[in-house]
Structure formats: C-alpha cells, structure tokens
Amino acid sequence: MTIISIVVPCYNEEEVIIETNKRLTSELNKLADKRNLKYEIIYVNDGSKDNTLKILHQLEKENLEKNSINGKLIILSLAKNFGHQIALSAGLHHAKGNAIISIDADLQDPPEVIEGMLEMWKEGSDIVYGVRTVREGETWFKLITAKLFYIIVRKLTNCDIPLNSGDFRLMSRRALDIFNSLPEKNRFIRGMIPWIGLKQTPIYYERSASFAGTTKYPLTKMIKLALDGIIGFSNTPLKSAYYLGFTVAFLSFIYGFFILVYSQIKGFPVQGWSSIMVTILFIGGIQLITIGILGEYIGRIYDEVKKRPLFIINDKESRFGN
Ligand code: UDP
Ligand code: MG
C-alpha cells in the first residue's frame, strides 16, 4: 500500500486553514480512491499566536468522527515560532510516507497539482518541484525582491536553485531519508534539495494569490533566508575578504613604492610623512591578507562542521552479486 505524506507548516493561518484542509482532503480522498493509496497530513503549527492550533485540533476531531479510512491528520505543535524552514524540517522528519509532499498552508500552491507530482514520481523522479508560472496577487515589490533573491543566491552559491521554485515539492522516501540525514542547523531547504542530486523534475503550475492573509515573509525574513542560502552554500563572502586583502595590499605596495620614489626625487614638505605612510600601508596590507588566510581556514572548518555526506549514490550495479 502506498502512503502519501503531506507536510503543511502553519503560522497564524486561522483564516485559511479550514479551507486548506477541505481542499487538501477532498483532493487526497479522490486520489486515494483512484490510485488505491492512503495519506497522512502533517500540520506543523509553528508557534502560531492566533487560533490556528485550536482549529487544527477541531479538524482532527472531525476527521476522527468521520472515521476516514483513507487518511489521518497529524498535528505537530512546535514550542514557539521557529520559522518556516525549521517547521518544514520538523514535519518532514515525522513523515512516514513513501512519497512526501510539502505545501504552503495559504493555498497559494494548488493541491490539484499533487496528482501530476505523483505521476512523475511513479515514472521514477525522486524529487518533483513546483515551478510557478504566474504569481497572481503579489505586489511588484515582492516580485522584484523574489527575483533578486534568486539571482543573487544562484550567482553566489554553486547550487543550481531552480528559478521561481518554492517549497512546494514531492520527495521520494529515498530523497527524504538523505535530506533528513543532513544535520546542518541553518536550513536553506531550497538549496539543500538541489544539492542532494538524484532525478529531479520540475512541474509547472500557476501560483494563485493567497486565499487569505498576507505573506509571513516580510523583507527582513527574505533577507535572512537569502543570507542562509548564500552563507550556507558558499564560502564566497569569506573568500572575498581574501581577494580584497590581496587587491588592497597589492595597490598599497604600489602606492608605497610610488611615495618612496617620489619623496626621494621631489621631496615632501613634511618630514617623515613618506616613511609613516609606507609603514601603515604595509602593515594594513599584511593584516588584510592574514584575515583572508584565517577566512580560508574558517571556510574549511565550516565545511567540515556542516557534516554533509561526501557523496550520494544513485545506483549501484554489480555483475557478480553483492
Ligand atoms: N510559515 C511558518 N512559519 C513562519 C512563517 C511562515 O510555518 O515563521 C508558513 C506559513 O504558514 C505558510 C508557509 O510557511 O504555510 C509560507 O509562508 P508565506 O505564505 O508567508 O510565504 P510566501 O507565500 O510569502 O512565500
Ligand atoms: Mg504564501
């Protein structure tokens, strides 16, 4: 029997959660009958300050009363607001299914796309990620910052993060087990998934406006997410100190040399100025380079402590058994 897990992080979603649950369960019940599968929906309450948790408990009670044989509701309630990426990770850790789908609670990702995702999973994809074609009902500011976010993160990291993809995706059991084994604390899931590799396929859909409520990703959280992406996936900022150090040091050496020669030929009106300048520039340059070298070591320590597996095997074949 195939089991599908749906993970829904929820933060202050009281206005929409009932509707979300209705659409999700009706779609999943349809699929359950059609494809002979069972499902579990894991709602992760990320320390909501409104009635989200109360409504979730009510939904669970109703579901029990209905005695649904197709699926069950699971509620995970975090002790405080840990943020979207952590809430999602918590839900993913508890998912038991053969295929696991993560979806936003605000109905911006239509549950109707799930069927297509399952289709691609059956055809052998380990990860099927949603790519939105239009983003209705979002301000131009959100659109531009989102676009900038992708451009910068893709440029600075060596991770091939697909453009316009969010956290609406399906993962096979195998992909999720690998994902769960990545122990890093600053989790930038959109980068970690492409990092895993395996067979990844996009599925295109139209992103609708939030059913209710506003984005819980204000600019500050977007910047935090971008920083997690950049710093978690590249040592470029650390290395930039190194390059900057070398450039500045190089330029100051030239300048120092120039001052030295100039003062010998023309002479400076202030006695001792050139020797002080040369000393300052020289020491400044040495300091920057040393900071760069420290950065280089810290970068390596950082790579080590992330404790990511060295490689991930997709297939292993052997002709002689074993
Ligand atoms: N979310 C969460 N914790 C937070 C912020 C958001 O669990 O601290 C959830 C939220 O309930 C939603 C999903 O993460 O299900 C995406 O949030 P939102 O819709 O605000 O993001 P956007 O659509 O603007 O990318
Ligand atoms: Mg949203």
TrEMBL record:
Concerning Pfam families, the annotation shows: Glycos_transf_2
Domain called Glycosyltransferase 2-like: residue spans: 5-176
> What organism, scientifically named, is this protein from?
Silvanigrella paludirubra
InterPro entries, alphabetized: Glyco_trans_2-like, Glycosyltransferase_2, Nucleotide-diphossugar_trans
Q: Hey, which family's this protein in?
A: Belongs to the glycosyltransferase 2 family. GtrB subfamily.
GO terms for CC?
A: plasma membrane
| Chief localization | membrane
Q: Please state what the protein is called.
A: Glycosyltransferase
Query: Record's Gene3D superfamilies?
Result: Spore Coat Polysaccharide Biosynthesis Protein SpsA, Chain A
Q: Which domain of life is it from?
A: Bacteria
List the transmembrane segments.
241-263, 275-298
